[in-house]
Amino acid sequence: MKVAIGLGCDRGTPQATLERAVDEALEMAGAVADEVVALASITLKADEAGLLALAQARGWPLCFYPPALLAEVEVPNPSETVRHYTGTPSVSEAAALLAAQAADARALRVEKHRVKGADGRNATVSVAAVGAERILFDHQARQSAHALLAARRDMRHFQSGCSIDAATRERLAAALMQAPSVGLMQPWRVLRISDDALRARLADCVSAECERTAQALGAREEAFRALKVEGVRECAELWVVLLAPDDGTVFGRRTMPQEMAWCSVGAAVQNLWLAARAENLGLGWVSLFEPAELAGLLQLPPGAQALGLLCIGPVASFYPAPMLSLADWRQPRDAAALFGENRWAFSEDSAADACASAGPLKQE
């Protein structure tokens, strides 16, 4: 059973009191901590130290609802006293029901469990069950999802001679098709390369571009040549992701028609990337080619464009960190350098500067 917890408390209620109240309520509901999908309260408690600490300690997402929204929820135990102080007749019951996305109050497994701490401060906890039709993730599922995101790698080293069964390919394709797209335009097209001769010619295109890239890198030419940057010949499956000719979609892309199409294709590849990692398969996105050359080889119509060769297949092991980081080619930046608030205030370091800071190349 998955559950959501609603919690109301006096100002300054200690974390220990909140933990006791929550643990007792979960036991009454026949639930355990790992089944909690969310902890919820009123926006008046958004700065409540004990509540914030509790959510962080348990790894529970914490959501705060405004009084007006809580007041719209029908609950079995409304209180005019609570309304007087908070603007809503219910905090814990209403918050639990909202966080569980419950249809009505029948979802409540614990209506109001009250606990008074040693210092006299009070906490009230309600527990609501998440309906079977609702897809809400508990703590274990969230951990698995974040582990998948952290484990995704752009792979270049594949085990030669392997193959992938049709059922796995279908699951990968389904994941790609579930990706978001601007205006639901789905501008991607995917070609599976099953012709060995065609794969060889595509590999030759990549090799030619690798040579041109090396020559364009100046002082880093030899370091680039030491890198393995693609697995077109070795991977079990080679798919080409294409941008389809513009279908005239306006919704969401009137001002940036091409850019939003590219973003939609990128989202689809990311879905595929994560699905492949969940199948314990590597995926590498190769962009080292001349688009016009691939257009000719693949007989693309006017307006269509190849955006990537996707190498998919078994690998001996996944890189413990991004390969370019391990090779000291370039280091990922901290989130603090890439996230801001309200207005642009980022440093103007260039890609060239980031690359120049790399040390000697490590062989893999």
Task: Name the shape in a single word.
Answer: elongated
Q: Please, how many helices?
A: 14
Return the average pLDDT rounded to an integer: 95
Largest sheet: 5 strands, mixed
Instruction: Report how far the terminal alpha carbons are from each other.
Output: 46 Å
Structural class: alpha+beta
Within the largest sheet, what's the order of strands?
Answer: 3-2-1-5-4
Portion in helices: 25-40%
Q: Runs with pLDDT <50, length 5+? A: 356-364
Radius of gyration: 27 Å
Number of strands: 9
Assess the beta-strand content as a share of residues: 15-25%
Concise description?
The chain has 364 residues and is of the alpha+beta class.
Question: Explain this structure to me?
Answer:
It contains 14 helices and nine strands. With about 375 residues, the protein is α+β, with helices and mostly antiparallel strands. The protein has a five-stranded mixed β-sheet with strand order 3-2-1-5-4. β2, α2 and β3 (about 60-65) form a beta-alpha-beta unit. It is elongated, with a radius of gyration of 27 Å. The chain starts with a strand and ends in an 8-residue tail after the last helix. Residues about 355-364 have low confidence and may be disordered.
Please give a handful of descriptors for the protein shown.
elongated; alpha+beta
Write the layout of secondary structure elements.
Layout: E1 3-9, H1 15-29, E2 36-42, H2 49-58, E3 62-65, H3 67-71, H4 80-86, H5 92-99, E4 108-116, E5 122-129, H6 139-151, H7 166-177, E6 188-192, H8 196-216, H9 221-226, E7 237-243, H10 257-278, E8 282-286, H11 291-298, E9 305-313, H12 323-326, H13 335-338, H14 351-356
Parallel strand pairs: 1-2, 2-3
Antiparallel strand pairs: 1-5, 4-5, 6-7, 7-9, 8-9
Helix pairs in contact: 1-2, 7-10
